[in-house]
Write a structure and sequence with these properties.
The complex is a heterotrimer of chains A (166), B (424) and C (801).
Chain A (H helix, E strand, L loop, with lengths): L2 H17 L7 H12 L4 H11 L3 H8 L13 E6 L2 H4 L3 H12 L12 E6 L11 E3 L2 E3 L4 H16 L5
Parallel strand pairs in A: 1-2
Antiparallel strand pairs in A: 1-3, 3-4
Helix pairs in contact in A: 2-3, 3-4
Chain B lengths: L18 H6 L4 H6 L5 H11 L11 H6 L10 E6 L8 H8 L1 H15 L3 E6 L4 H16 L15 E6 L9 H9 L22 E5 H13 L1 H6 L9 E8 L6 E5 L2 E2 H8 L9 E5 L8 E2 L6 E2 L1 H6 L8 E6 L4 H15 L5 H18 L5 H14 L5 H16 L1 H10 L8
Parallel strand pairs in B: 1-2, 1-4, 2-3, 5-11
Antiparallel strand pairs in B: 5-6, 7-10, 8-9, 8-11
Chain C lengths: L2 E4 L2 E4 L6 H7 L23 E6 L4 E4 L10 E3 L3 H16 L15 H8 L23 E3 L9 H9 L6 E3 L6 E3 L13 H5 L5 E3 L12 E2 L2 E2 L8 E7 L2 E7 L12 H5 L14 E2 L2 E2 L2 H19 L4 E4 L6 H13 L5 E2 L4 H13 L7 H6 L2 E5 L3 H4 L1 H12 L3 E5 L11 E3 L4 H8 L11 H16 L3 E6 H18 L8 E5 L5 H7 L6 H9 L5 E5 L3 H4 L3 H10 L2 E6 L4 H5 L2 E4 L8 E4 L4 E5 L34 H8 L6 H11 L16 E2 L23 E6 L13 H4 L7 E3 L1 H6 L7 E6 L2 E9 L7 E5 L16 E7 L4
Parallel strand pairs in C: 1-5, 16-17, 16-23, 18-19, 18-21, 19-20, 21-22, 23-24, 24-25, 29-33, 30-32
Antiparallel strand pairs in C: 1-2, 3-4, 3-5, 6-9, 7-8, 10-12, 11-12, 12-13, 14-15, 14-25, 26-27, 27-28, 29-34, 30-33, 31-32, 31-34
The chains are: A alpha+beta (166), B alpha/beta (424), C alpha/beta (801).
Bound molecules: flavin mononucleotide, iron/sulfur cluster and FE2/S2 (inorganic) cluster.
The site of flavin mononucleotide has 25 residues of chain B, from strand 4 and helix 16.
Chain lengths: 166, 424, 801
């Protein structure tokens, strides 16, 4: 985490914190912002959030380690969340997951050697009508087929190469 | 078969209703008609009379909940809208909010007026970026137009609405976990009593309602309690219901149908029947935490009372259909894995009991289970239902359904030494 | 008082009690993990299932969460209840490692007990177990996360109860772990309670890892000797080595918990240099010879120079019986008076309290139950650590708290603070009109008025203070303030931290008489020619060590009875080894006037060290036990007086001669103790003059106790040796800047306590005009005895340290 990021986060949050009767309620918001800028939340991010909110780092860590989508370890530039809940399961999730693993050469929980993709399972994305589904960053992709997955990966890899936000 | 559209009346595929359109199509009339003109208590009474029941899964009568709320107590009070929507098979709130976010803003403003609340939160799950954006925009628009903020429509009534983006956990849908999540502490559920109506967010009286519940309020305010009851097809029920279809159907979309619509109509008409001409085997009628229904239940009216009587629950009305080739043991294992993974880790039956159930189901799938495992499996619901909150109890829905309707399938796994459907 | 039936027996319990507590009242233990009397019920473990068969609720319920109601019928043995409990145990055991053979909790493991009690004897789960990495948590507490059953007791103790802020819950689902944000020493002064509250072996006492099983150890109910609060303890010993201390339930004192000084400070009893053999003029000899020779010399001196020729000095460390025996020796020597404390100001402060306290004394339980607290000149972390926790519980329940103290605030609860010496404020509070003292700033005046009003309005107000900062004058003012705030039917109580575990008892036995300065003057004048020190170390406890050293040098005979290798013992002509508290029966009177007994845990002797390297202990056959010679102080003194007694006789004599100690006769160790019936003394006492001020160019130096390193017993315990904070001179940033000193820079400190060159530590919470040091044995601040109140000092940029 660099100094610039810290400055930006401070600039974004200090007014909000001042305006807030219970600053602690901003902790998830802050962690999400750090992750948005840094890709994941490093220890220094937890400490920064704690400093800004007047909390102890452990208080922030307790929250950070609870949530599924706060990454406390490095991830690739694109995090693929492939849904494995019942509706996707009933419509070919296993095939999609196997295809992703094969195409990326990694297993669930791993990051591609080039640092572009991290593959994680997720519970129901609320896209049950468009199963099987996955989410890359905040982009939701439904009605997946192996071909469609290939196209999405190409597209996302290209965008990541151009430095587009996830 | 077309049914009257209330919540989806303004929905256009691929679009989000803007403030302008919302106003053109009668939006904020309910708010205008109530604020400053109708006593809050009268509005609460109206909702009580309408028979509206919570759409978030538990089906608690909304008006009754509001009657416990200390609306006249001094000091801050909160209204929280629950849009965590992480229960597998459930996506109705997303459809509703992406289509028509102002409906929620108006519903919350009305509810806030009825409850004497000045601050509200919409709690949105992490993955619903589309909902989050639509809501932020709608809130800004409503603010600009005087439907939110300090002196709403020039009256003394003020209401501020904040949109909170979560970071991903099913348990936050449980209302007391949600409150902890909003406060920025670990989102384990809280001990009750005290109930949120006494001590909720930041220790203050709080009401938590589902998106769809709140979106119904403006319509009730405009058209009255009798009209609302009349929407239902079955006696004792009220309103329409959003049904999110999924699984092995030809059409897996979200429909607004009258309360009490028969399951057969949902499956065969709206869902277009089971894919590839296969036979209907079972369904989750109301999300991952409801016991299965089978083909024998196809004529059950989909409402709170009838589904209870059928041994299941209306839940969130997310209908997930399984065809004849589905291994119900594997399906149940998938569901239980979800619950085990989403356990908050607070209480033993959920934290450690659910993984144990998964382990047992896996043994069936792998052909490693015998009658001892079957007996063990059957014993689990009684223990796990003693969990601290309803998450693990919800997980017992599909397991109990499996044990009740598909015991033979479990036995087949034992005698075949593995999954008869070729799974795992 | 609802009356209900549990397992076919009726019981009435106070309204609000849970079914679990009602069962407890019948002696029925409903198995539980997450419930803890001091922490309350949270309903997490789901083990305490019972069947409710009649009453407002029906069916299987968690006993900890159901309020006992009239007419309820409860079964703890119904099949549904036992089945549920068995299932919960099975769930908890799924991932539990079967490492009991190498687990220090073995034998005292609640999980083990419950597993057996629940009938879970066969493992049916064949899957993988989840595992966690462990964290390094410092020298006291060992973590083995895999053993965790997620009862949340640790975090509820550490954080909720004790106010720690560096420990929490991490992760979710089946991967919930407890620990710090980063590995490192647990910062809370109460960290060791993790060991006691953890029902399994996640948190164990690192200082005694792999040393003994619980059944290998001797233990007996005892009273903590490390401060004046008298917390209830269980010391545990094996092979004549005091291994560890755990908390004992003390309803009026500690509740359940202990501070880390009390828990990890007991190793002084094993100190390798501790006196173990009587020594006279550099020669070791047996008891009979030593006593004989000393008795003769003392008698001769008295005979030649009168009873005043022998000085007698004790300290708050000595037991009540030992202090009495010293008095009896004085009588045997023709009436030599006893001096209670080596520090004269401390001595007078304690005597002032004991004389005037009457019924105003308040113990830890009273503090916990208080609704309004004023801490005037008290630094609990150094003087009485558990008092801070007691106050925290009151504040958690909604009590208001105010602090009047110039020192930085390190309390585990929020309080309104006036950063000044409390004297003038107390003086104002004691006046009938209560008008604020002059010289306060507006905000302070407002804060003062608010605190006074709150104390007046409160139902159970308590004033807390420390004898060290207040001194005799401050203590009298505190007493006067408490009286001024009392009304008929509603007293304002008082809780004062004293120097030692029996300071109260010592002062009770000798309410007047000379103080240490008068004693020194006697030596200097040549009147006093011999001095007997009972567990007292004037060289490090008197505020003028140089004067003491010179005086001791003039003595014809210095006799030291102690179990610590003190500076004074090193200078003595005769050293008589005494036993530590855990090695004897005895009694202390705590700060609030509660008489409590402690029992002998083991007999003194050289510990046998098991090296673990295969070597057998030396094979030496002898009829005695090496190092067994130390005797209780009272026994040595009685023998010295030529009148050996049994403890029972001594206690009976004490109970007769001092009616307030009548309770001593029936005192049992481990019992609740006896609150002394004290009458405030009617005697008119001259007011102690205000202390001399601080001149231009000087700062007011406070030398205080730290949690570790200051208190003479624990300072000599190996486990805490490494954790005492660095010697430093604390200054507020403004004073430091004026003196041209920055953080960490060396400063030369000159004061009547001595001189030292110390690194500067900037302490923003310290009031301007003050300098603060913490006395630490074994460093340049050893001679900076606490208890002197503020004294003048000069500070300048220092040279090399
Ligand atoms: C594990 C769990 C998850 C839940 N998730 C949701 C949810 O996503 N949305 C929701 O509205 N209610 C959810 N609920 C129900 C809420 O606790 C609460 O009952 C509901 O928000 C109340 O609103 P309603 O009465 O309008 O339905 C969940 C309950 C549990 C136990
Ligand atoms: S059932 Fe227990 S562990 Fe599971 S989510 Fe609820 S409280 Fe947490
Ligand atoms: S003791 Fe009752 S749930 Fe743990």
């Amino acid at each position: 985490m660099d100094a610039k990021l810290e400055q930006d986060i401070r600039a974004e949050f200090e007014p909000q914190i001042r305006a807030c009767a219970h600053p602690q309620e901003l902790v998830v918001h802050l962690l999400r912002a750090i992750q948005r800028e840094h890709g994941w939340v490093p220890d220094e991010g937890v400490e920064l959030a704690a400093r800004l909110l007047g909390l102890q780092p452990i208080q922030v860590e307790e929250v950070a380690t609870f949530y599924d989508k706060i990454y406390r370890r490095p991830v690739g530039r694109r995090v693929i969340h492939v849904c494995d809940s019942i509706c996707c399961w009933s419509r070919g999730e296993q095939e999609i997951r196997a295809h992703l693993e094969a195409r990326l050469g990694i297993r669930l929980g791993e990051t591609t050697p080039d640092g572009v993709f991290t593959l994680l399972p997720t519970c129901c994305l609320g896209a049950c009508g468009r199963a099987p589904a996955m989410q890359v960053g905040f982009r939701l992709y439904g009605e997946l087929t192996p071909d469609r997955v290939d196209r999405i990966l190409d597209e996302e890899r290209r965008a990541a190469g151009q430095g587009d936000p996830p | 078969m077309s049914h009257p559209q209330v919540l989806f009346a303004r929905r256009r595929p691929g679009q989000t209703v803007s403030l302008e359109t919302y106003l053109q199509e009668g939006g904020y009339q309910a708010l205008g008609g109530a604020v400053g003109k109708q006593a809050p208590a009268a509005l609460r009474k109206l909702v009580l009379d309408s028979g509206l029941r919570g759409r978030g899964g538990a089906g608690f009568p909304t008006g009754q909940k509001w009657s416990f709320f200390p609306a006249d107590a001094p000091g801050p009070k909160y209204l929280v809208c629950n849009c965590d929507e992480m229960e597998p098979g459930t996506y109705k709130d997303r459809e509703l909010l992406v289509a028509d976010p102002h409906a929620l803003v108006e519903g919350m403003a009305l509810a806030a007026y009825a409850l004497g609340v000045t601050h509200g939160y919409v709690f949105v799950r992490y993955d619903y970026e589309d909902v989050f954006r639509a809501l932020e925009r709608a809130v800004a628009e409503a603010h600009g137009a005087g439907f939110l903020g300090e002196r709403i429509l020039g009256t003394d009534f003020g209401f501020e609405l904040h949109v909170h983006g979560s970071a991903g956990r099913y348990i936050l849908g449980e209302e007391t976990s949600l409150l902890n999540g909003l406060e920025g502490v670990r989102p384990n559920p809280r001990l009750r009593p005290p109930f949120p109506a006494q001590r909720g967010l930041f220790g203050r009286p709080t009401t938590v309602q589902n998106v769809e519940t709140l979106c119904n309020v403006p319509h009730i305010a405009l058209h009255g309690a009798e009209w609302f009851k009349g929407l239902a097809l079955t006696p004792g029920e009220a309103g329409t219901k959003l049904f999110g279809l999924s699984g092995h159907l030809n059409r897996t979309e979200c429909f607004e149908l009258p309360m009490g619509v028969p399951l057969r109509e949902v499956v065969e008409v709206h869902g277009g029947g089971v894919r590839q001409g296969r036979r209907f085997k079972a369904c989750l009628p109301g999300g991952a935490s409801t016991p299965y229904l089978t083909a024998a239940h196809l004529d059950v009216p989909m409402d709170f009372g009838n589904l209870d009587r059928a041994g299941s629950r209306l839940g969130t009305a997310g209908v997930t259909v399984f065809d004849e080739r589905t291994c119900m043991v594997a399906a149940t294992l998938n569901l239980l894995t979800f619950f085990a993974r989403e356990s908050c880790g607070w209480c033993t039956p959920c934290r450690d009991g659910l993984p144990y159930v998964c382990y047992l189901l896996e043994r069936f799938e792998r052909g490693q289970a015998g009658r001892e495992e079957l007996a063990l499996l059957k014993a689990q619901p009684a223990f796990i239902n003693q969990s601290f909150c309803a998450l693990a109890q919800g997980a017992m829905g599909p397991l109990e359904g499996l044990l009740r309707h598909f015991e033979q399938e479990l036995l087949d796994h034992v005698t075949r030494g593995g999954c008869p459907f070729g799974g795992a | 008082m609802p009356t209900l039936t549990i397992d076919e027996r009726e019981v009435s319990v106070p309204a609000g009690a849970s079914v679990l507590e009602a069962a407890e009242a019948l002696g029925i233990t409903v198995p539980h993990f997450c419930y803890h009397k001091a922490l309350g019920a949270v309903g997490a473990c789901r083990l305490c299932a019972v069947e409710i068969q009649a009453g407002p609720q029906h069916g299987l319920r968690m006993a900890c969460l159901v309020e006992a109601r009239d007419g309820m019928v409860v079964s703890t043995t119904a099949p549904a209840a036992t089945g549920m409990r068995r299932a919960v145990i099975e769930y908890l055991m799924l991932n539990h490692p079967h490492d009991c053979p190498v687990c220090d909790e073995g034998g005292e493991c609640q999980l083990q007990d419950m597993t057996v009690a629940g009938g879970h004897g066969v493992r049916r789960y064949r899957g993988k177990k989840r595992t966690f990495p462990n964290q390094e948590l410092g020298p006291f507490v060992e973590q083995e996360m895999n053993r965790c059953i997620q009862c949340y007791r640790c975090v509820r103790t550490y954080r909720d109860y004790a106010g720690g802020h560096d420990f929490g819950v991490l992760g979710v689902r089946q991967r919930v772990a407890y620990g710090r944000f980063r590995p490192g020493r647990l910062e809370s002064p109460y960290s060791g309670n993790l060991v006691d509250v953890c029902p399994t072996g996640v948190f164990t006492d690192k200082t005694v890892r792999f040393r003994a099983r619980v059944w290998d150890m001797q233990c007996a109910p005892s009273v903590c000797p490390h401060c004046s609060l008298g917390c209830a303890t269980w010391p545990w010993a094996r092979y004549r080595e005091l291994l560890r201390v755990s908390g004992r339930e003390g309803p009026r004192t500690n509740g359940f918990f202990l501070c880390d000084r009390g828990r990890f400070g007991s190793g002084h009893a094993n100190h390798p240099d501790r006196p173990r053999t009587p020594r006279l003029d550099g020669r070791e000899l047996g008891w009979p010879e030593a006593l004989e020779a000393l008795r003769e010399r003392l008698t001769k001196l008295t005979w030649a120079h009168g009873p005043g020729a022998v000085g007698l000095l004790t300290s708050g460390r000595a037991s009540l019986e030992s202090a009495r025996a010293l008095g009896l020796l004085g009588q045997a020597l023709g009436g030599a008076p006893v001096v209670c404390e080596p520090h004269p100001r401390r001595d007078r402060a304690v005597r002032a309290l004991v004389a005037e306290l009457g019924q105003l004394g308040r113990d830890q339980e009273d503090v916990r139950q208080s609704d309004c607290l004023l801490l005037a000149g008290l630094d609990p972390e150094g003087e009485a650590p558990m008092l801070a926790l007691a106050a925290r519980q009151a504040v958690r329940r909604g009590a208001r708290a105010a602090v009047w103290d110039p020192r930085p605030d390190r309390l585990p609860f929020p309080a309104r603070r006036i950063a000044r010496l409390p004297e003038a404020l107390l003086e104002a509070l004691a006046r009938p009109d209560g008008r604020a003292p002059d010289g306060l700033e507006a905000a302070e005046r407002e804060s003062y008025a608010e605190t006074r009003a709150a104390l007046q309005a409160a139902e159970r107000p308590v004033l807390l203070g420390g004898a060290d900062l207040l001194g005799p004058r401050g203590v009298r003012l505190l007493l006067a303030a408490a009286r001024a705030l009392s009304r008929p039917g509603r007293a304002c109580g008082l809780s004062l931290a004293l120097p030692g575990p029996d300071s109260f008892g010592g002062a009770l036995l000798c309410p007047d008489g000379p103080d240490a300065d008068e004693l020194l003057a006697g030596i200097e004048a040549g009147r006093v020619r011999a001095l007997v020190c009972l567990e007292a170390d004037p060289l490090s406890e008197h505020p003028d060590p140089a004067r003491v050293a010179a005086a001791l040098g003039r003595l014809e005979l210095l006799v030291v009875l102690d179990h610590l290798p003190t500076a004074s013992a090193a200078r003595a002509h005769a050293v008589l080894p005494t036993t530590a508290a855990a090695e004897m029966d005895g009694a202390f009177v705590n700060h609030a006037g509660r008489l409590q007994g402690f029992a002998r845990v083991y007999s003194a002797g050289l510990p046998i060290r098991v090296t673990g390297q295969g070597a057998h202990p030396p094979r030496e056959f002898r009829p005695d036990t090496p190092g067994e010679l130390p005797q209780p102080g009272w026994a040595v003194l009685a023998a010295l007086a030529g009148e050996p007694v049994e403890l029972g006789e001594l206690r009976a004599e004490l109970a007769r001669s001092e009616p307030r100690l009548a309770g001593l006769a029936g005192l049992v160790a481990g019992g609740p103790g006896v609150q002394l019936a004290l009458e405030p003394s009617a005697r008119e006492r001259p007011d102690t003059p205000a202390e001399p001020g601080v001149a231009e160019g000087e700062l007011a130096l406070l030398s205080v106790e730290a949690l570790f390193g200051s208190e003479p017993l624990s300072a000599r315990a190996a486990p805490v040796a490494g954790v005492a904070s660095e010697d430093a001179l604390a200054l507020c940033p403004a004073d430091a800047a004026r003196l041209g000193l920055g953080e960490g820079e060396p400063a030369r400190l000159r004061s009547a306590l001595g001189e030292a060159v110390l690194p500067v530590r900037l302490a923003p919470g310290l009031a301007p005009g003050f300098a603060l040091v913490q006395r630490r044995f074994g460093g340049p601040l050893e001679g900076f005895a606490p208890g002197g109140g503020p004294i003048a000092c000069r500070i300048e940029k220092g040279g090399a340290r």
